[in-house]
Protein: Fibronectin type-III domain-containing protein
Organism: Streptomyces sp. SID12501
Amino acid sequence: MRRTRLTAAMVAAAVVSGTLALASPASADPTPAGTFRQLVGVGSDTTQDVLNALAGDKVAENSYADTAVKSTAGAGIASYDAIGSATIQTRSGGTTFNRPNGSGPGRTALSMSLTGDLFPNATGVSVKSQVDFARSSGGPSVSGTALTYIPFARDAVGVAVRGSGLDTLTVDQLHDVYAAGSDHKVNGQTVHPVLPQSGSGTRKFFLGAIGLNENTVDTSITTVQENQADTALTADGTLVPFSVGSWIAQNNDIAPDHSKDAVAAGAHLASVTLPGDTGATSPVTTVNGKLSPVGGYYENATFGRDVYNVVPTRAIDPSSVFFDKDIYDVFVTSGTHEAALASDAAEGVIAKFGFVNESYNGSVNLAKHAKVGGLEISGLEAKTPAAPALKTTLGDASVKLAWTPASPAPAQPVTDYRVTLLGADGGVVATKDVPATTTSYTFSGLATGTYTASVAAANLIGTGDAASWTGAVKYASTTKATTATAAYGVAPKVAVTVTGTHGVVPTGKVTVKEGATTLGTGTLSSVGKVTVSLSNHLTVATHTLTVSYAGAAQLNSSSATVSLKVTKATPAVTATAPASVGHTARAKVTVKVTATGTTPAGTVRVYEGTRIIATGTLSAGKVTITLPKLAKGKHTLHAFYAGSTTVVSKNGANFVVKST
């Protein structure tokens, strides 16, 4: 928790009282040489010295080891200066690459660390995973959401001048001096404007503050390394934009001094008439012989500025698969979580270096000075992925999402998928981020109700359009069915039992189908059972039936497959014939074939022994057959029904006809 805010004025008093040791300048890449730490930062010259101090390194020979900022897991900061050796190596065994000089190159290096592009350009090397954050004295140059600009402190841009004729300046004067076509005169005095190097955040901010940009500035103006008065202010009448925080730190011997010679020759920060004011305001004041910020200048909307630490947005999103707890711990203040860089101890160090601590330091709330921006890579195709093709499967109090990536793939490949579940009121029930290799996810343990589930693919540019589904989530039901073999003509029965989970007793209807043909329906009893009777004229065969439960208010539908065997009917064959007949006459035999639920059709033959003596065709299950003349004597005969596609064949009982 923040309890006391240290200001530069308090630090100045501490310097005078002897509580802060001062020493000569020193370089401050991670020390000792060859030191590697987990959280690597590059970029702005403006904040490099204070970040070096917060990393626990020596700055101007002052040791800050006791106030080194670390994550809860012990990850420390490795802050690499904007100037120094031509190249740096930030990981043990990692790539050696050009040192990023300034806010813009720092943000570019961070961007390329995410994409694996070559830094600083196509002739460079891949810096994949070599940078974790960028120091930036300005906001985004590219729209987007890939990078989050976290406020670190408040700085201001002043104008360092040499010569008494430039003690007081106006915004209009500065505009006219730096604009293309300028005669470089102030109040009739010829002056020598200087600008920081290309890519400098201070340069970009200053030009914007005086109403210019890179297209309207005088391109003949000399450029120097930012925040170094010794190389910029070499003659009277010279002026250069300068970080006020850096000016204070250098002149108070807190930071490496690149301005001592210029100050000895009369260099100082000019007072500026701020827009809307009638008098000029100095950026600094003196407290006990030491420089300190002037609050009104720092808070001014024209020349006051936030300085930032820029991190990958996904790294500080706790729901992302790329969430980095170490980065979050060090840089982010959210809710009850306080950034290590916003602690009282850290803010004490920040104040020593001429910056003003604000209540929003570390905030990622876009309403509280945080900003978002896109990857800063020239020619990058800034497209998010299209919506994937989505399929949903309902389960027991669950919904499973399965998806197929959109085609063609975006130029920047998919890195992850964001899966979201909303309730009927539109509130977020659950969200999950999964790696790009994952193509399904299940939300389970849900209450019954209406939900909207969606999935969206993301890449380093941002999250694309979502594919969504809206429907009811219910409990699971299970359908079981049994049958018994049935003869043709007898109605088959399907015994169905449906059960539900979570103690829910199923209600409603079940349907029995063969293919697309409905064979029967039934309504479940109070215990979830029903017996469905089918047609008694199903073909003689083994039938594959689908038994479906339609579901209910709290239960999903379910189904089962069951086999039903329908066999041929077994007939009864009866014959009626005269007991005797003259040997010159022809007897008539009436044969009747019956079967349950059907009227047999087909051929009837009359046999004497194994010899067929007459035949007939059934009509309505009956036929009268005229026998041939029989030789005198007793004849033992029987009728034989030959069967059909639905009824089996059958012999009738023997009967005797006496021929006289």
Summary: The first helix runs from residue 8 to 17.
